[in-house]
Amino acid sequence: MLQDLALLVSIGFILEALCTNMTGFVLDAIPTTTFSLLIVFIAVVRWNLWGLLTIPVMTAATILGGHFHIVKGLASIYDWKCYLSASIGLLVIGLDVIAFKKKKTNKIIQSTIWIIGILLINYILYNLVQLFFFRLFSNGNPFIIGESLYEVIIENEDGTISKSNYYMDYGVIYNLFGLAVSVIGALILRSQGVVNNVVDKLIEDKQNAEMLKKDAEEFKVDSLEAKEAEEESKPAIDSEKN
Fold this sequence. Notes:
This protein is mainly alpha-helical. 70% of the residues lie in helices and 2% in strands.
């Protein structure tokens, strides 16, 4: 399990850091997730709640990529408040386990509608929870927009002034790239057999191996009985000929 999660999070870390930086640069935005939604989702599908162990590393990749944003004011938003709020937000993916237990994981994964539906719900809940806690950490009140005890003022190219915290309120838009990556990535990886529950797969493989072994034994017994019956019938045939 640890090797599987380590490989998954290693690939995800690189993709998350690079794409967070490039997406922020191209769109002049501050995405808080690009590949992390997909990576954590796959980890939870494969290892249930153990998959949530990937979250601290994935959010660290987000902060690393955002820290090198070309706009210094926007780069400053990727701080401890962003790290904690994004980490807490990604925890909502753990709720997917409820659906996986009520309806077998592999049955859900085989349904395109189910996958897209779950990923869309994950996306909406993530943005709501992440913004709630970011505001809470910023000013102590999650229902106040754009204010912060740690305010950073940004001078825009057109000469206007913006408060950095306002950018977080548009996270549901800035993170759309992450939603697209999640849906497309999950469907592609499903076709490659990557998106599956490892425990269920091991049990299924064991059951299939036992069935094959049983069939082989039954076939061997049937063949032996047929051979014995053939040998028993030979004397009778020989006596008839004589």
